[in-house]
Design goal:
The protein is mainly β. It is built from one helix and nine strands, in the order αβββββββββ. The chain has one domain: Gamma-B Crystallin, domain 1 (Sandwich). The protein has a six-stranded antiparallel β-sheet with strand order 1-2-4-3-5-8. Strands 7-6-9 form a three-stranded antiparallel β-sheet, with no helix packed on it.
Length: 136
């Protein structure tokens, strides 16, 4: 078996595994992961383009200091839009940490707290959000 064939087989297997788990990497999204059905994966933090967890979704496993290079994916209103200053609601599927959404990049200014295993419409950062971080 050639090395070229083996690399293609491994890459195809990884892509199939990603689809099977419902997660697909999205080109151009630094750290964001696209969900096929617009649901927030377990242990992830998610921002939605519209209120009440509606519209396109951006999902994050790690904190993000600047949403300027992240884009809404999935389906619905807002798909392809930059996340920075465009999110209306958020969901925290982390059981051990709160998610804080910040008005400014680099975790500054006003913020909204999304409690563990909870979701909410954003208020202090509604359509004015630039970063998020995990807090215990």
């Amino acid at each position: 078996m050639s090395a070229h064939f083996l690399r293609k087989t491994v890459a195809a297997g990884a892509a199939l595994a990603a689809v099977a788990t419902g997660l697909v990497a999205t080109a151009g999204t630094a750290g964001a992961t696209e969900t096929i059905d617009n649901t927030c994966p377990r242990l992830y933090f998610c921002l939605y383009y519209n209120s009440n967890r509606a519209g396109a979704i951006a999902t994050f496993f790690n904190r993000d200091a600047n949403f300027a290079d992240d884009y809404f994916a999935g389906s619905g209103a807002g798909r392809g839009q930059v996340v920075k200053n465009n999110a209306a609601s958020a969901q925290n599927n982390q059981t051990g940490l709160e998610a804080w959404v910040w008005f400014n990049s680099n975790f500054g200014g006003a913020h909204d707290v999304v409690l563990r295993s909870n979701w909410r419409n954003l208020t202090a950062t509604y359509n004015e959000n630039a970063s998020f971080d995990w807090h215990s």
